[in-house]
Structure formats: structure tokens, C-alpha cells
Specification:
seven-stranded mixed β-sheet; 250 residues; globular; alpha/beta; 9 helices; 7 strands
Length: 250
């Protein structure tokens, strides 16, 4: 993946594994060999309740949130966040709450996340997140309040409203809402693309791997799957085409 980024002359690439930092050392070594700047991050599991609580399964909702280290202080805080999410917050997944994020926010850049993030889920997308959550109905005011709360924790310049377009209707339906929220709280936008494989043609192989990991059959209804074939490392040109300056200024 880092070789593909280097061939495309991309200056940097981020790692945001789900809930952990296990791949960071190998990722940094590989990136440095290619001359691409490695950005260390984690796709955190965030809970609206306390990380110490163990709610019934029906009430156990987790939301995705990307956290990126801006500097060494931020990297050390990511280590603390990841460790405490396991030690204090582990309940099906290693969870972080607002208090933990506030305690270790220095040097950390955060985003509102993918469709599985709290802000997108409050906008009610018709998509089931990887956590099994579904949009519980649109509550725009609650989405604005959640974004503002995260902005208070990380700072005005360190919390981004994240935009994604993998060709999913649910993503496109809330795109305007996310841009509106960014304007209301004066938060910068960040366009990202989930990269679970390097090239588009690797989609089928990735789908088979998901089946092996989850013990599922490919034709099994309701199994974990990634809709579409867009979860690969897009080129700079492809990203600019998806998010043109005329539509997404700044």
C-alpha cells in the first residue's frame, strides 16, 4: 500500500486500524523505505456512556472515530488511549469515552468518522455500521451538538468533519448535512477513503478473507461485507474527482 502511495507521489499515508495500534511499527518502517510520511492513527471505538459500564447487549452501542497523532505528544497519547480502552473499557471491543478522550487529547487530531461514527449515525443513514448500529432516525440538532462536543475536547483546529464517498447512497445522503455542520461549528473538512485493500480488483479476495475471518459463507445473508468495490487506495486524481474544489472549497 505504501509503495502504491509512493508511485502516485502522495506525500503521506495514515494507518487507522480498528481499536489498536498493532500494525504501527511495520507500517512506519515500510513507509520510511518508500519516502512516504507515515501518519499514525487509530479508528477508535467510542461509547456515549462510561467506558467502565457493561450495558445489556441491546444498549451496547459503539461508534467509530478516527484519531491521528499530530506529533510525539499525540503519539504517546494514542498509546495511552489504546491501552486504557483495553484495560478499562474492554466490552466486546476496546472502548473510549469522552472523559478518556479529554484526558489524552493533546497532540491528537480527531474526525467525525465514517458511517459508523456518532455524528453520521445521528443523521440517520440507511446503512448498518460494522458495529451493528443502524441510524435511529434523523436528529440533526443532536448531530451538531455531538460534533461541537468533540470540537471542545480536541480544539477548533484539531477536529475535522470527515467526508467519504464509496458510492454508497447513505454516504451521499448525509454529505450536505455534514458540510452544513462543518459551517455551523466552523470545523474544517477532511475527505478520506477507507482503504482495506490496495487495488480495486482485490475486492473479491478481500471479501473471501472476511468470510474466513468471520467463519461465514459468501452467500450467507447478513454477514459482514463491504458494499461496492471502492474500499481501495484511491489515487490523488481519483480523490480530486470525487471531491472537486468547486463543491468542497478548502
Amino acid at each position: 500500500m505504501v509503495k502504491a502511495a509512493a508511485r502516485d507521489e502522495q506525500p503521506a499515508i495514515a494507518i487507522t486500524d480498528h481499536g489498536n495500534l498493532y500494525g504501527v511499527v511495520d507500517f512506519v518502517k515500510a513507509a520510511r523505505k518508500t519516502g512516504v510520511k507515515p501518519i499514525i492513527g487509530i479508528e477508535a471505538y467510542y461509547t456515549e456512556g462510561s467506558r467502565f459500564e457493561r450495558p445489556p447487549a441491546a444498549e451496547n452501542r459503539r461508534f467509530h472515530m478516527n484519531l491521528l497523532a499530530e506529533n510525539e505528544v499525540g503519539y504517546r497519547n494514542l498509546l495511552q488511549l489504546s491501552s486504557k480502552a483495553f484495560l478499562d473499557g474492554y466490552y466486546y471491543k476496546p472502548r473510549m469515552d469522552i472523559d478518556l478522550l479529554a484526558e489524552h487529547s493533546e497532540g491528537v487530531i480527531a474526525t467525525s468518522g465514517c458511517l459508523g461514527g456518532l455524528v453520521p449515525q445521528l443523521l440517520g443513514p440507511d446503512a448498518v455500521s460494522e458495529e451493528g448500529n443502524t441510524g435511529a432516525g434523523r436528529d440533526f440538532d443532536a448531530a451538531v451538538a455531538a460534533a461541537a462536543r468533540f470540537q471542545d475536547v480536541f480544539g477548533k483546529d484539531s477536529f475535522f468533519i470527515e467526508l467519504q464517498d464509496h458510492g454508497l447512497e447513505a454516504q451521499r445522503r448525509i454529505m450536505g448535512d455534514l458540510i452544513d455542520i462543518s459551517k455551523r461549528i466552523d470545523a474544517p473538512l477532511l475527505a478520506t477513503n477507507d482503504a482495506h485493500y490496495t487495488r480495486r480488483e482485490e475486492h473479491d479476495a478481500h471479501d473471501v478473507l472476511l468470510c474466513i475471518q468471520t467463519g461465514s459463507l459468501r452467500n450467507e445473508p447478513g454477514r459482514l461485507r463491504f458494499d461496492g468495490t471502492e474500499h481501495y487506495l484511491k489515487s490523488s486524481e481519483e480523490m480530486r474527482a470525487l471531491f472537486p474544489d468547486s463543491d468542497f472549497p478548502g
